[in-house]
Each structure stands twice: as C-alpha cells, then as structure tokens.
Sequence to fold (206 residues):
Amino acid sequence: MNRPIGEILPIIFLSQLNAKYTRNPESVSYTSQRHIFLIGHDGSVAITFIKDDDELEALKLNVIQTINNAIAYSLTHNKPLDDLVEKKKTLSPLVLYESFRSLEKLDCGECGEKSCFSFVAKLYNGERDIHSCPYVDTAIVERKLRPITFYQPRARIKTSSVVAVAALASVLVRARRAFLGVPTVPPCRPLDERLYNRPKLHPLLG
Fold:
C-alpha cells in the first residue's frame, strides 16, 4: 500500500495492547504473539522474528485486518481521539499498578509471579494476559491498555435483515475504497503485497 494512512494510526494505537505511538516520523508499534509490528504513516509495515513463509502469510493477513478494522472504525465514529491518545501515551507499569494496589489478595502469587507489580510489568510489555489474575477487574485494566476494541458480539440475524446488512456492508466497502482513494471497479486489493529479501526485519508493504 503506497497511500498515507496516518489518520488511522491513532486508532490502531488505541486498539492494540502495549502499543507505542510516535509523531516524528508518525508510526505505531505493538507486540503480538512475540512479534513486534511497526506500521508507518506511508503504509509501510515491518515485523520481527518471522519463522517461515507460512507464518509471514498469516501475519500479513493479521496486519491487513488490523488496518481494515481501523479504517472501518474511522468511517463509523466521529469522536475526537486526542484525549484518549494522550492519556494512553502516559500509561506506564506504575500507573497500571494502581488498579492492583487495592486488591485484598495483593501479591498472592496465583498468577505465577512473585508480586503484582512484576505481573503488571509483564502485562504492560505484552508478556502476560490480564485474565491470569483472578482478582483484578479485567474490564478496567483492559480499558486502560486498549481504549478502542473492534470486537463485535455475535448475534442472530433475522432473514428479513439480511438485505439491509448486505447493503450496509456494500456501503462500508465503497467508503473504505473512497478513503484509500482507489476506484471501486475493478475491485482492488487493500494492500500492496510486494516483498523484499527477508532479513530479521520484514518490510511487507512498499
């Protein structure tokens, strides 16, 4: 993909755990499943620690889905995100630890760590899952780590609603293509899949 996507980078930043957002140059980085992802404002993407081509293909789909979700969110939400971005940028293990200090079973060790702060530090870095702690309010912690979620609860759709849903999906597809500045006909792939030689760091999109 060779079109700027800077305006959706704050959305990606707010939707990913342990993400970092920089403005010069504008980019977002985050860790997921032991990989570090870096997405630039120009649409360039790099990923670390790729085992083989099969894993590369799976990770490419992951990035494509993340970017498409962010585009869809930007088209359906008009709320300014500056305050959320600045608040998350100030988040640190010490700030996150405040959600644990009032626990009745502080430093209980049931998560496998020696202390709650040790758990929080690894949670902040993406090394632990919040659900490993049986006592903390996971919803509060997750809202601090990830103010935006793309999760949509499953629901049964009545037959009479199928046409309306299909029409809405068509509108979103056209809107996303308009956002990217690409023609609606013929259909085009959302991202450029050109690859270069793959060292430890893998540029995906040129």
Q: What stands out?
A: Residues 71 and 119 are 33 Å apart (CA to CA).
